Amino acid sequence: MLGALIGDLVGSVYEWRNIKSTQFEFLKPECFFTDDSVLTVATASALLTGTGYTEAYQDFARRYPGRGYGGYFSNWIYSDNPQPYNSWGNGSAMRVSPVGFAFNTVDEVLAEAEASAVVTHNHPEGIKGAQATALAVLLARQKTPLEEIRAAITNYCGYDLLRRLDEIRPGYTFDVSCQGSVPEAITAFLESTGFEDAIRKAISIGGDSDTIACITGGIAEAYYGVPNDIAQKAYPYLPREFLDVIEAFYKRYGK
């Protein structure tokens, strides 16, 4: 899950200032964590404590306000009777990576990814985006060959993962939908040669850079691990509470 947070941090400064290149300063001083990190940590906390996803997401979002939450979600955070709002947005995918680390079978991962999504994102595309991301994390953890990961995601989720980044990048624009950002994030991982390279490729697509890189980062961590030097540079950007949850999560579920 740290990989997802690093993707969010690196992409935070490019969300509204896209850079269509892999050549940029990694972890700039002005990088910051966004809602992607808050809710990824909330997912991990829910898995550790047995807290429901609704309670965990409301709790963390209330304690870390102003981090770029979407309009519908911002209202949902403070609702006394929070209900899903049929969202197909990529919020369900950016927060789900801990599920892919915590469960060990395809059926478990797909079911738990859906459970994490439906408290807000109960649209079929919102569920599918979470499932595709969590499944990619699981398969990456298992060191499944990249072409087999591509085939499995296509089979389960129907995404077109045959496009190359060089085809996607020139015309790609801001898209917060799962169907318009999750396939791109997975493709960035599939074309990568290492953890940092995956993050760089994700950001080079443009669009919703922090979220795309967050999704890619979780998958890339599962496959490559997070280099220690990058992890050490990332820690100071994150609240102590986040680091405590990460430590507890790795202790229970491994890296």
UniProtKB/TrEMBL annotation:
InterPro entries documented for this protein: ADP-ribosylglycohydrolase, Ribosyl_crysJ1, Ribosyl_crysJ1_sf
Keywords from the UniProt entry: Magnesium, Metal-binding
Co-factor binding comment: Binds 2 magnesium ions per subunit.
Sites where the protein binds Mg(2+): 34-36, 208, 210-211
Cited SUPFAM superfamilies: ADP-ribosylglycohydrolase
Cofactors that this protein relies on: Mg(2+)
Gene Ontology MF: a single term: metal ion binding
Protein's name in the database: ADP-ribosylation/Crystallin J1
Originating organism: Candidatus Brevifilum fermentans
